[in-house]
Specification:
Layout lengths: L1 E3 L3 H9 L10 H11 L18 H4 L3 E7 L4 E4 L8 H15 L7 E4 L2 E8 L2 E7 L5 H19 L1 H10 L6 H4 L3 H13 L1 H5 L2 E2 L5 H13 L5 E8 L2 E7 L7 H13 L7 E6 L10 E7 L6 E7 L5 H17 L3 H9 L13 E8 L4 E3 L10 H18 L8 E5 L4 E6 L3 E7 L5 H22 L8
Parallel strand pairs: 1-10, 7-14
Antiparallel strand pairs: 2-3, 2-6, 4-5, 5-6, 8-9, 8-12, 10-11, 11-12, 13-14, 13-17, 15-16, 16-17
Helix pairs in contact: 5-8, 8-11, 10-12
Length: 462
C-alpha cells in the first residue's frame, strides 16, 4: 500500500488548457488533494482556530502570525479565523502600501511593549505580532520559515503564476488542509533549538553503527535519487547525498516538519511532491516516505527528481533493508532508540542544568534532555526564549558579541561563539561566572570525547 498524491502542476494542468482559468480552480478538488496528502493530522493549535478575534483569549496570545496576499486577501492566521480577521489584514496591507508609496519599506512597528514585524515576499506579505522579548531579527527569521513552508507546497513559480493572472485570488483554496503544517512549524520554532541555530540534531549512535547505516544507504542508489535521509523521530540518523548536491538546513527542517506532522505516512509507502525552496524554488522533487516498521520511529525519506520513480525508490528501500540485515545494522539502531537522548548528569558538571552546542563544521547540534526544573511546556518555552535572547546578542547586526553572561533569579546563563562552535549554557542561580567558565572547559573536553557518537563526522555521497 502507498499514499500517492499529485503536485500543484497536476492540479492546474487541465485548467490552464481551458483559457487560462487556473485561478478559478475548483476548491473541493484542491482541498481533496491536500487531504489525501495530509490525512489523519490534527493541528496543535486547532483548538484556537474558532476563537473570537475580539475576545480577551485571542488578544492574550503572546505571538500572532498572519499571512496575506498583496491584494490584502487573508491566507493564514495562527489563532482565530481568516474570515474574522479580513479587515485587520486589510489594515496591515494598507500600512505596507502607504509606506511603499513613498518608495520605502516598512520593517517593524514598536508600541506599548508590542512588536509588529513585516516581511514582504511578493506576492505574499507576512506579519508577526509579538509581546515577547524576541528581536526583530528573530521574528523575521520565523516569518521566513513560514514563507518557505508555503513555497514547499506550491513552488514560487506557480505562486507567481497564480497572482499574475488574478491578484485577488484566494490562496486558501489551494492550501486548504495544509494549515496544520504551518501550525506545527510555529510550534517547532518555539521549542526546537535547531531552527534557532540553523542546525539539526542527531540520534546518539556509535560511529561504527552509523557508518553501517550510511554505507547501506549509499549502496542502495538509483539514477534519479538525490538525497537519502533516515530519521529517528526528530533526530537525524544519517543523510547521504548525490555528489555536488547539498541540502540546506531550512529544507531539511521542512522535511522534518512534513514527516513529524503527518500520521498518514505510517500507513504504507508515501509518495509526495515537495519543493525544497533553498535548493530550487521553481519545481518539485518527489519523496518516497516510509517507516521501517509500523511501530518504529525510524523513517526513511528518498528524494527523487522523477515523478514516476515510486517503484524505483521502493526498490531502493528494499535493497537498503537487505544490506542492513546482512550487516546486522538494524539491532544497534533499535538499541539506540531505547535511549534517544542523554541527561546532563552524564556530562559530570554538577552546576550545569542544560546546554545547546552547535558544531559549525557539520551544521549539527546536540543538547541533553530537559532536567526536572524544566519539565513543563511553559518552562521549556521560557528557557528557549532565554536562549533566543542570548542568540540575538551574539548575532546582533551591528554589535555582535563573542561571549555573554547573565545572572537571573531562576538561572544563570552563558553564551559563547567561536569559529568552530556555538554554545549556550544554563546554570543554577547559585553559581558564579568563574564556575561557568570552568564548566565550559569541562564540557568542551566531554564534547571532544563524545563527538563521533553525537555528530556525523564523515558524511557519504553517491
Amino acid at each position: 500500500m502507498f499514499v500517492q498524491t499529485h503536485s500543484f502542476e497536476d492540479l492546474t494542468a487541465e485548467v490552464e488548457n481551458n483559457g487560462r482559468e487556473e485561478t478559478e480552480l475548483d476548491q473541493e478538488e484542491c482541498s481533496e488533494e491536500l487531504k489525501v496528502r495530509h490525512n489523519g493530522n490534527i493541528s496543535p493549535d486547532s483548538r484556537n482556530k474558532e476563537e473570537d478575534v475580539f475576545g480577551e483569549a485571542w488578544r492574550s496570545h503572546k505571538k500572532h502570525v498572519f499571512v496575506l496576499s498583496e491584494a490584502g486577501k487573508p491566507i493564514y492566521t495562527r489563532y482565530g479565523t481568516e474570515e474574522g480577521l479580513s479587515s485587520t489584514m486589510g489594515v496591515m496591507m494598507a500600512l505596507v502600501s502607504f509606506v511603499e508609496a513613498d518608495k520605502n519599506v516598512i520593517r517593524s512597528i514598536h508600541a506599548d511593549g508590542c512588536k509588529v514585524v513585516f516581511l514582504t515576499k511578493s506576492p505574499l506579505v507576512l506579519v508577526g505580532v509579538s509581546q515577547t522579548h524576541q528581536s526583530d531579527k528573530e521574528m523575521l527569521r520565523e516569518l521566513q520559515y513560514i514563507y518557505y513552508q508555503i513555497i514547499s507546497l506550491l513552488t514560487l513559480t506557480q505562486l507567481n503564476h497564480i497572482f499574475q493572472h488574478k491578484q485577488n485570488y484566494d490562496l486558501r483554496r489551494l492550501l486548504a488542509g495544509s494549515e496544520y503544517l504551518t501550525d506545527n512549524l510555529l510550534h517547532r520554532l518555539e521549542r526546537d533549538p535547531g531552527l534557532l541555530l540553523s542546525a539539526v540534531t542527531c540520534l546518539p549512535l556509535a560511529s561504527s553503527s552509523r557508518d553501517v547505516v550510511s554505507s547501506s544507504l549509499q549502496a542502495a542508489k538509483s539514477k534519479n535519487l538525490v538525497f537519502s535521509i533516515l530519521l529517528a523521530g526528530d533526530r537525524l540518523v544519517t543523510l547521504v547525498r548525490k555528489k555536488d548536491q547539498f541540502l540546506h538546513h531550512i529544507d531539511l527542517h521542512l522535511v522534518f516538519n512534513l514527516v513529524g506532522s503527518s500520521s498518514s505516512f505510517r500507513e504504507g509507502e508515501g509518495w509526495t511532491p515537495i519543493c525544497l525552496p533553498k535548493f530550487n524554488t521553481a519545481g518539485f522533487f518527489h519523496a518516497h516516505i516510509s517507516y521501517l516498521e509500523p511501530a518504529s520511529e525510524l523513517c526513511l525519506i528518498l528524494v527523487s527528481t522523477d515523478r514516476e520513480d515510486f517503484f524505483n525508490m521502493s526498490d531502493c528501500k528494499k535493497r537498503f533493508l537487505e544490506r542492513m540485515n546482512k550487516r546486522n545494522g538494524y539491532q544497534p539502531l533499535k538499541e539506540a532508540l531505547k535511549c534517544p537522548s542523554y541527561s546532563v548528569e552524564q556530562v559530570g558538571i554538577p552546576e550545569l542544568r542544560h546546554f545547546v552546542y552547535k558544531s559549525k563544521s557539520s551544521g549539527l547540534y546536540t543538547s541533553p534532555e530537559f532536567p526536572f526544573v524544566y519539565q513543563s511546556d511553559e518552562e521549556q518555552e521560557r528557557l528557549m526564549g532565554l536562549y533566543q535572547d542570548l542568540h540575538s546578542h551574539l548575532h546582533h547586526p551591528t554589535r555582535p558579541l563573542r561571549s555573554f553572561y547573565r545572572c537571573g533569579e531562576s538561572e544563570n546563563l552563558m553564551a559563547w561563539v567561536t569559529s568552530g562552535f556555538e554554545l549556550y549554557l544554563c546554570f543554577s542561580p547559585l553559581g558564579t561566572k568563574a564556575l561557568a567558565v570552568s564548566a565550559v572547559t569541562k564540557l568542551l573536553k566531554w564534547m571532544r570525547k563524545e563527538e563521533d557518537r553525537l555528530f556525523i563526522l564523515s558524511p557519504l555521497t553517491y
